[in-house]
Hints:
Elements: H1 2-11, H2 39-42, H3 52-66, H4 102-113, E1 135-136, E2 150-151, H5 152-170, H6 174-187, H7 196-207, H8 211-222, H9 232-245, H10 249-256, H11 266-275, H12 281-290, H13 296-308, H14 312-324, H15 330-340, E3 351-356, H16 362-382, E4 393-398, H17 403-414, E5 420-422, H18 427-436, E6 442-445, E7 458-460, H19 466-478, E8 483-489, H20 492-507, E9 511-518, H21 526-535, E10 539-542, H22 546-558, E11 567-570, H23 577-582, E12 592-595, H24 604-617, H25 625-641, H26 647-656, E13 660-661, E14 666-670, E15 673-676, E16 679-684, E17 687-690, E18 698-702, E19 720-725
Parallel strand pairs: 3-4, 3-5, 5-6, 6-7, 8-9, 8-10, 10-11, 11-12
Antiparallel strand pairs: 1-2, 12-16, 13-14, 14-15, 16-17, 18-19
Amino acid sequence: MLVKTKRMLAKKTPMPMTLVKTKPMPRKVTPTPMPMRPQKRLLTLRKKSLTPQKKIPMLVKTKRMLAKKTPMPMKMKPRKRPSPKPSMPTLHPKARTLQVPGLSIIALLALFACAGPRVPVGFPDVEAEPVVEPVVEPDPGEPSIDIGLYTTGQEAEFALLLPQAQSALDAQDFEFAEARALEVEAEFGTVPGSAYALWIHARAAEGLGKPEEALDLVRRFRTYLTEEDERLPEMALLEGDALLTLGRTAEAVAAWLPAQDEPVSEESFSRVEGQVQDLTESELVELVDSGEGVVAPVLAEYAFRQYASGVAGSARRTAARALDYGARGRAELLALAVLSGDVSEFFIKTRLGAILPTSGSPSLRQFADGIEEGIRVALEMFGQAEGIRAETELVIQDSGGDIIGARIAFSGMETSDVLGVIGPLQEGALAEVAAQVQGPLAVISPTSPVVPEGSTGVYSLSSADPGAARALARYAISSDLYTAVVIYPESTDGAYEARAFSEAFQSYGGLLLDEISYPTGAFFFEEQLRRAEALLPDVLVLPLPARDVEVLAPQVTFYGLDSLEIRILGTNGWREEAMLSRVDTRYTNGVVTASPQPAEGQSDGYLRFVESYESYYQRTLPDQVPALGYDAAGLLLEGIRRGASTQAELLETLSTMPAFSGATGRLFVDDGRVVRDHFMGCLQDGQVLNLPDGARADPILSPPLRDPETDSIPEGALDRVIGFRCPVTLVPSVPVSR
């Protein structure tokens, strides 16, 4: 019966259990006997254990569960039983029932139920079969990034990742959404629906401020969709928004607009209406001619541009079409204004502000009058009505000539809706205004010698200009002069120009041997000149003010640096006429300088300013003060003429537009400063001569000195260099290229 029970449990065939005495049967020898638990524990009987009659099938059942998946039933061979301990009660010796504690059986069942792979116990040579995931053919109904096979495991993991990415996107956790989308793109590209990860990635990139990446992803995702897909309008919005962020307004409007004769969504309509004013007339024409731009906002704006250009008849027809297409809001008002012939309220109005000491001391008032004269000349030349832009207005606030007045004047300027501010004139007043500026506002002082540190959008036409130092560095390298020493005053302007030369010279491949400073107001320079002499540079760069040139230039000759064939390069201070008239020419001959004005004659910008000033005021230009006001206003007006209509746009335009040909030179904004193009010149006999590109001052040679002992010139002695003269080649005066 025991054998039958074992076989029954192995085959999992239910049959009634009856206790029958059986004879011991011989056990077949197997290569590896089934491991048994210690017999001592199996023979233990607790008081509350089951009856002996019920323990036989339970034990057999338990053993057969441990030997699950055995290919053939096993016969048990009776073993010799050890003598029971006297203290432990046992069954009758004739009974063949193994006594097993109930808790031990439960423990065995729990242990093997949690086991790993079901390898038959007692047969270690039997290995579990490897699990092979079924390969699934792609479903053509769902778009995937790539074409290919995928496993059910990949499909299951993808089903977890994509909702995580979507949930992160909904929670505006754009970084996590991007990470999950990238994982799907990289590892699950063949799973149906994986293309949707591109859409999640595109929106996450937009949220992270990556418009170029968002634009690329949304265009990739579009290729997987059909023309009837409901997500296309939403994708068009994202594509247009990304293009607008990149500054491509015309392309953005085209992206928002659907194909011809298709309805326009409310979101697209509002976006087009908000940006159509920034389109040029040629862009409007292209949209209308393509058919995509036949929507009310585009048609109304096009009609307005036609009317401003003088084509009234065509403008009225276009305005009527805009009304037929359901123009509303601004588009409706604009179309009606074109039809009525009065569009003045739709012209772009611009204002510039000026903070001047109109009630200060007599000298300050006179100076402020000269600046205002230059501003009004610039308005006459560059601020007139043009296209849809109305004439630029000037708003003047009085600073009273002090810091508190400048603060009050700027407060009044903030409420005047100005695009840019000219002034204040004094250094302290400019610092006060710079501290009050909130947001993107361009402030240009015509005369302040210093620009406040850390200020954004605050400039001065009279602060240190790195253009001269950079031009000298380019000239030195182009003339094969590759080593330099700089001697400069310990002032803000001197240190700035020295640093500008050093950075430019080294960036072009030159070797800077030393930078030597001297205290402001010094009169003796032996220490500095001896240090430079010991290094024997190709050039000695002296970015000095005119008052220092007058003192230092003779000492260069006195200490013999010019006799060592060391050439002198100087900034605009070397060109001052009053200084040149007082210094002996032998100390300045051959010095190469850089200046915003050409060496000979006047620039075209200056000549145009003088002509306009004298025509406007009907008198001769008294001095150069109006030129500074003219250039400050001219820079701002040039930015407005290039399309800037807000403070932020004007500030951005100033930093990117080409040089403006002003009265004091060709001006442009670079690295937070107003910089001028510079012309190279050479000093000769108190005059500034044009210097060809790559030309060097010629050394003046003298015969070698006689030997005092022999009173003769030593054999092989070289001629001595006793100074320099400018080359005689005459060339047109052109600024050094930036």
